[in-house]
Amino acid sequence: MKEKKNLGRREFLKNSIVGAFGGGVYLSSLNSSPLIKTFSEKNKSEAQKEVEVEYRKLGKIDFKASLLGFGAMITSDPAVLAKALDMGINYVDTSRGYQRGKNEIMVGKVIKSRRKEVFLTTKTTLKGTNEILSDAEESLRALDTDYIDSYLIKSLGVRANIFDERGLNALEKLKKDGKVRYVGTSVHSNEAEVVNAMVDSGFYDLVTVRYNFRSDEKLEKALERAHDAGIAVVAMKPMGGRGGKGFDVGYKNKELNHFQAALKWVMNKKFMCSTIPSITSFKQLDENFNTMGMDLTWSDRKILYEFARATDKLYCRACDVCSGVCPDNVNISEIMRYLMYAEGYGELELGRDSYNSLSFSERASNCINCDKCVVTCPNKLNVHERMVRAHSMLA
Ligand code: SF4
Ligand code: SF4
Questions:
Q1: Closest ligand 2 atom to Cα of 375
Q2: Mutate which of 317, 339, 343 for ligand 1 pocket (most atoms within 8 A of beta carbon)
């Protein structure tokens, strides 16, 4: 693909138009980054010959991670992960709960013979100190490894959780015992507040954060602050919705699709150390891999603008404004996330598993016969319609 290298970064910066399109799409402040590029020729297929892996330092952590990491959450085929490692991808993200524990086992088998090459991240949820410690032991067993590079507590949606002593004590002990090298969080909602709290705490090494072209300036500033403080910033959900009914806007460009444009948008942020899109197939792997090193063009911005306009009323920004508003206690933002798995990412099984892990009282069954929804979403999502759809699709 000629586009990858023909337009130099300096030239690009000179020509690029910086600004917001509106419509909830924040597309400003592109930056180039100092990149370290190495990729052994012998590992390249014909199709990958022009692509060089970009490595960026993980904040204060002594490791250079591939800018394209591997989100293993829904990967079932170990050969896809093995090929990614062959291609030079060295950042792998999993979690205790993914695929009911099977995902860690799969990841562990693939990385076993090349453990030192890989920066391995896994996670648990916030709970009692002893429970977190026992989750970590489970993860070590499942992953068949002596240490986890980065251990995260996930979904810490409010500032107070960052300072919760149960989590801090567990993470500190794991580090002290050498079972975990670095600690962090993964953030799905209220991202700016949580990231700023992480910086204030001075405790954490790494954050994986939901970040894409739909994210706002407040979050960008928080991530820049985290980066400046030496926290490694890793983007999850960098596509802002992928595949699935309602998210297929039928973009027809033969050389590039809107998912690549979205990934480019994130990769072009200088504070971003790595990205972890979910990768389930060789096709996705190649598509994402080929995006590395590409500059973001005006045409990409146009694609993203169109994509955002077509899907804006389906995309929950997890702002949590709806939290606690429903008199029936429906857990709207979590259910929106699970609906996104099914609709936005085409992962129906994951959406169903997640939905059915909610308690009955949190599910959307009451929405079906609810005459008047009292919840107003500032981002213009039709909460009643979305909840009814989620329940009929996922229950
Ligand atoms: S449904 Fe709307 S209000 Fe609720 S979290 Fe999503 S974007 Fe925010
Ligand atoms: S439709 Fe009714 S039950 Fe469902 S979220 Fe809205 S207020 Fe709650």
A1: 6
A2: 317
Question: Which residues neighbour 81 within 8 Å (Cβ) at sequence distance 6 or greater?
Answer: 70, 72, 75, 92, 106, 107, 110, 111, 279
Question: What is the model's pLDDT at position 294?
Answer: 84
The per-residue pLDDT for range 218-229, each reduced to its tens digit, is 999 999 999 999
- Which pLDDT score is estimated for 242? 56
So where are the chain's domains? 9-310, 332-394
Q: Say how many Å lie between the CA of residue 309 and the centre of ligand 2.
A: 26
The whole-model pTM stands at 0.80
- Among all bound ligands, the one having the nearest atom to the CA of 214 is 1
Question: Which amino acid is present at 337?
Answer: R
Tell me which residue has its CA closest to atom 8 in ligand 2: 326
Report the alpha-carbon distance of residue 378 to residue 317 in Å, rounded: 10
Instruction: Please name which ligand lies nearest the alpha carbon of 313.
Output: 1
For residue range 284-338, what is the model confidence (pLDDT) as tens digits? Answer: 899 899 998 888 899 888 888 888 888 888 888 888 889 899 999 999 999 998 9
Residue 53, number of CB atoms within 10 A of its CB = 22
Closest ligand to the CA of 335: 1
Q: Which residue has the tokens 């999850």?
A: 236
The highest-level CATH class for domain 9-310 is alpha beta
- The protein residue whose alpha carbon is closest to atom 8 in ligand 1 is 319
Q: What would you report as the CA-atom Rg of the chain, rounded to the nearest whole angstrom?
A: 20
